[in-house]
Amino acid sequence: MEKALNDTAPDLNRASDPDPIADDEIGLSPDFVRKVVDRIDAGDAPSVRAAAVDLHPSDVAELIELLRPDERRTLVAILGPDLDIAALSELDEGLRDEVMDYIGPGRVAEALADLDTDDAVYLLEDMEESAQQALLSRMPDEDRAQIERSLEYEEDSAGRLMQRDIVVVPPHWNVGQAIDHLREADDLPETFFEIFVVDEMYHAIGTVPLSRVMRTKRPVPIQSIMDVEQTLIPADMDQEEVAHQFEKYNLVSAAVVDEDDRLVGMVTVDDVVEVIQEEAGEDLRRLAGVGDEALTDTVIKTARSRFPWLFANLFTAAIAAVVISAFGVSIEKMVTLAILMPVVAALAGNAGTQTMTVTVRAMATRDLVDFNVGRVISREVLVAFINGFIFAVLMGLGVGVIFGDWELSGVIAVSMVITLGFAGLSGILIPLALDRAGADPAISSSVFLIALTDAVSFLAFLGLATWLLL
Amino acid sequence: MEKALNDTAPDLNRASDPDPIADDEIGLSPDFVRKVVDRIDAGDAPSVRAAAVDLHPSDVAELIELLRPDERRTLVAILGPDLDIAALSELDEGLRDEVMDYIGPGRVAEALADLDTDDAVYLLEDMEESAQQALLSRMPDEDRAQIERSLEYEEDSAGRLMQRDIVVVPPHWNVGQAIDHLREADDLPETFFEIFVVDEMYHAIGTVPLSRVMRTKRPVPIQSIMDVEQTLIPADMDQEEVAHQFEKYNLVSAAVVDEDDRLVGMVTVDDVVEVIQEEAGEDLRRLAGVGDEALTDTVIKTARSRFPWLFANLFTAAIAAVVISAFGVSIEKMVTLAILMPVVAALAGNAGTQTMTVTVRAMATRDLVDFNVGRVISREVLVAFINGFIFAVLMGLGVGVIFGDWELSGVIAVSMVITLGFAGLSGILIPLALDRAGADPAISSSVFLIALTDAVSFLAFLGLATWLLL
């Protein structure tokens, strides 16, 4: 497709163009996007259609995200029934409702019934209750029942993530029977990587990777080639923990079980990859005080989502201002204090942020656990004091040389050790405390941390200076 | 195993204990770890052996990471030849060399030859040249040649990540022939999810997921069931881009090709999951000025790796100090300026960090591309000015009411708009500029950003105050 667009216009209508994904350039090239947008703006429906109709659903989603709202509507209208509904699950959440509106509930409901349950649930779960019900009521009874059962699980749980159509065989079957069953069954998932072995009570008792089934002769019993050491995922497990299991044990799919260890579905690695990206982005944004925003959000929505953190910061900064104002007289007498105090606060804030980031990340990857928490805390405090002493010497020397005041030099050196040590301790204790309290350790750790390190820096430096120098 | 340890000591020696992974508790419980460590410290080899020998390699790695160095050595000695070498690839990089030393090069070389090429390369690539050569020279010629060819690709490229043993069939075979080939071939990877179809020149022309092979009758030609729209990964593609392709197109494995589109290997999703976690952690750490550190690093190594960023921060903070010192006379006359200036700087720093984080993340997930960069920049600036105006009003009112000085109130309000607007613009332009210059947009963005927002905040606020009020 891209090649076609790079050539001449009439080529766009050729149905036999090479596939863009297998093309020289992977995905959408900026040039391709620009040309499609030009055609959309020019109202050239046949060209747009020819260019977009054979794109991978993920590329269609990317294209939609890059368009302006009016262009999106036009593209959806041009594609009509050829728009692959799978593109919806690849879209930013904020855009999904918009595009579904363009498509219309009738076609969406029809398409949902054809999707694997996990994909259908993914599209439905964030919708408003009324819109969700409207779509569900248009779906065939059996599909609706399956989706409704998945929606009963809590948000972000394995139950929401799982696919209900799975391949299940009894242990006494042989490989040949299993293969014949696969060839005949018609409600199987689109792709799958292992088959699950269950007993008569539907307890998950083993798994066999497809590659092993393939490589085994037909008369061999499944029981003799199955892995019994499998990672069973409880349906109420949080998706972050599910992702951790997949990463740790290098899984491609895993059985999901109910509270009686009965098989209810499977989670596949493609959904887990999504979860990992989501959670990593979430930690990053939360540490910086940004909500769940996407580039396609409106300016007003974005400004509003960033406001609360800045507002909280206004109060924490006010605490620092109150501390400084207590030493107003000292600053009037010795204005150098006002010049140096932001340096102390900056270093403390940064040292604390380093520790906090390492802590939050180690908690996310489960490297920091109950067993080693004591050791890690003392390690962090030690690191903080080592750098505290080094920067005490550096700052002390610098201030002594530049201002020729070796008493002030001593004061800033001592403040440096106190504040960097304190910053290290806060950097690890704040996220740990938030976690113990049941909160996300990433969220608002920075607000508390910077408020504390600022206040302690100003207090230590201005306090010591007032006490010793004035 | 965990259950055994929770009971009585002799139970530890039973070979028929339930597997800990399929056990009630997934992975290692803190209690299990504590008991194993107690037995290691007590020199109770049989109990330790019984507890650890059947653990999943990933759990063995986790256990090793949680131990003190002397305990690690003891555990490796106790396990002896029963230590599954696969545990090595799950270990923190810093610990790998240590544990390989305990195991000895002879056994490591032997075990490496049995691993899939991608896993062997993963273990070898970070070693020192001499240690790497020593191990390679002990390996069988064929394995060594394969690994050496992979090591010729650049670090962090698809060529390093790929597995060389792949399943390849010609398009004219039928399903039956493919299955028979699978049953007979003996150099296949441990698990695989699709088979690759190549022409006589070994060009990758299609793929068939195993589940489709299984579900198709024996006489059907492979050609008629293969997907021709496949994502081909060039061997020199950066691993971050590989991960992006997997995530975007929901892949479980993909063909890796040389510059002539000839199949040279495949990348599987388990390695990609690792890459995604690695890259997400890297962005997070780099934004906070932390290097590639692990919790198992020594205190000295950690302190040293965090020093450079703090040192850079010393200089950027000094710039702010220089700006303030230029207004020393103003501060002496009006000490309120010293009290309020950190508030302006804090808000500007935070607003800038918000924008920068969103920008760095959007670049990592490829949501921010050439096509929409102009639109995103104007969006960010608009968001910054909207919040700038809101906080100008809030700060202006607060200062006016608290200090009863409405001229100062006006000055801080105007400074707020200037600095928040500037912070938003810097937050997006700095990572973009770093990226254009070929640097990682995450690394050191914060140093530049906070240096700039601090300097501009102090300059705007103190400058305006000096000009208008004094």
TrEMBL record, chains A, B:
One of its GO terms (molecular function) is metal ion binding. Its main location: membrane. The chain crosses the membrane at residues 310-331, 337-360, 381-404, 410-434, 446-469. GO terms for cellular component: plasma membrane. It is found in: Cell membrane; Membrane. The keyword Membrane applies. Residues 1-25 are annotated as: Disordered. The keyword Metal-binding applies. Keywords: CBS domain, Cell membrane, Magnesium, Membrane, Metal-binding, Transmembrane, Transmembrane helix, Transport. InterPro entries: CBS_dom, CBS_dom_sf, Mg_transptr_MgtE_intracell_dom, MgtE_N_sf, MgtE_transporter, SLC41_membr_dom, SLC41_membr_dom_sf. Residues 226-284 form the CBS domain. Belongs to the SLC41A transporter family. Acts as a magnesium transporter. Homodimer. This is Magnesium transporter MgtE. It comes from Candidatus Phaeomarinibacter ectocarpi.
